[in-house]
Amino acid sequence: MNFNLEGRHADTLLHLSQHGGRRLSVLQNATHRWLEIDGVVQSVQSLSEPARLCLPHQQVLCRALPERAQRILELGLGGGDMTRHLATRWPGATQWCVDLDGEVIALYRDFFQGEERPQLHHGDALAFLQQGEGCFDLVLLDLFSQDGNPPLLFQPALYQALAARLEGRLIINLLPRTHLELERVRELCRQWLAPGRLWPVPGYCNQILMLDYT
């Protein structure tokens, strides 16, 4: 059964926390479990098919995936929707997931993690790229702040660091507030990596940017 993003109704509140002006909740009904931050749905898990992607932007993102990936890095974990999907899609792949929010990582472990076993890192995405070693053949960049895309997404340092660690495909989930924000990211990709292709998400503000770089 499809998840009704606009008309969702929860039967059970599994978790609620409020601090620092932010509200995190995990909710569930008969068919789905989902994570909300400040009332905005971040991740959705189908209870009957945990690896199925339920959100519109994820279904578009799935079309941009390569045929195969062995070393996968996710910058931004949420409830692990892509983590579960990719672990099922490519069972032999190694997955790394980085999230700045330790509580989000804890909620993933407590409420959303299945048989997948990614290497979880609590910390800054840029620091992870700059301080680590080894390259990835798939990087998924899905970072957000309360106002939309975080400032890091518009800084050259991120794309310089990606250029040193990417040998394959980069996919970015963008939620640009203005056309200038979208063009800034595209220009940084062209400058440090390669020109990207945009995949709009019908009915939503999301834009999926995909490029290959070696």
Structural overview:
- This protein has 214 residues and is an alpha/beta fold.
- Helices cover 28% and strands 32% of the residues.
- The chain contains six helices and eleven strands.
- Strands 7-6-5-8-9-11-10 form a seven-stranded mixed beta sheet, sandwiched between helices. A four-stranded antiparallel beta sheet has the order 1-2-3-4, with helices on one face.
- Strand 10 (197-200) and strand 11 (207-213) form a beta hairpin.
- Helix 4 (125-131) packs across helix 5.
- The protein is globular, with a radius of gyration of 17 Å.
- The N and C termini lie far apart (39 Å).
Gap from first CA to last CA: 39 Å
Q: What's the total number of strands?
A: 11
- Main beta sheet: 7 strands, mixed
Tell me the Rg in angstroms. Answer: 17 Å
Briefly say what this structure is:
By secondary structure, the chain is an alpha/beta fold.
List keywords for this structure.
four-stranded antiparallel β-sheet; 214 residues; alpha/beta; seven-stranded mixed β-sheet
